[in-house]
Amino acid sequence: MPRDAHPYRSVLYLPASKERALAKARTLAADAIIFDLEDAVAPDAKDAARATLKAALDEGGFGARRRIVRINASDTPWHADDLAAAAEMQCDAVLLPKVGAPQDILDAAAALPGRAIWAMIETAAGVLNAAAIAGAHPALEGFVLGTNDLAKELGARPHPDRLPMMTALQTALLAARMGGLVVVDGVYNAFKDDDGLRRECEQGRDLGFDGKTLIHPAQLDITNAVFAPSADDISLAERQIAAFDEATAAGQGVAVVDGRIVENLHVEQARATLAKARAIEALVG
Ligand SMILES: CC(C)(COP(=O)(O)OP(=O)(O)OC[C@H]1O[C@@H](n2cnc3c(N)ncnc32)[C@H](O)[C@@H]1OP(=O)(O)O)[C@@H](O)C(=O)NCCC(=O)NCCSC(=O)C[C@H](O)C(=O)O
Ligand SMILES: [Mg+2]
User: Signal sequence span per UniProt (predicted)?
Assistant: First the structure.
């Protein structure tokens, strides 16, 4: 389980250059916001976007939403200025794109002392080195899957079941879990297709992702609902814990709920479900 107990059901990208989107984000039901200086900002708008973002973060108003700043990659002309600016920004973490090796994390940690770091896993090197990246430095707190860049590099075509992506998704997930990191699924590009979004959220949730990255506010409600424990999940967790407590009091090592056995590990999962539900409740009120 991740070291960070904050919910990351919905993680919304917004272009750091867009003042209206920055203002809107203060009102949206996103668990976290990625303020993007990378792909969503045109090359000639990078300097202005940095200044606009710094002013918006200084102004505040983002509440409990985690503020994550995505900077440009280390092989771009904007990286050094982004790092220097991010070090001064009022944010919770800095997200590095196209991380390919543990050294990328070490370099960023040295440039951003005391700052949490997140990594985009979106290249073949990033996927194949995911385990080493996950353990590179204690400042690393999360992985974000970059499924658009991955599809580009792999030459993969979009499939509704994401079969061409599955090895990459699961390799990143395994590495994140090994390292105690938050891990958030890639974006669903067709932001007006609610059914497709719901299917992909459910698939990501069932694989084990903590949440999904989003590109438009219209994607928030479905994503928040899918990645939250349902009423049935909560009821089952409560009944599992109660049945196990009763069984233990009677000197038994296992209980049975709804015809399925409940062992200590299931009770741990049940407690995690209830803790997640409480964390979401505390966030949304
Ligand atoms: C996709 C968009 C370009 C659509 O923008 P727009 O046409 O302005 O949408 P709407 O008119 O429907 O907007 C309605 C209002 O909502 C605000 N808005 C829109 N998008 C966002 C947002 N992402 N965050 C906050 N607020 C948003 C608009 O300002 C309108 O507000 P108002 O006028 O006050 O009512 C646009 O949604 C967009 O730019 N999305 C983000 C795109 C992005 O960040 N892309 C980069 C990340 S994806 C990626 O790179 C993943 C990864 O790296 C990979 O490789 O896969
Ligand atoms: Mg990308």
Answer: none
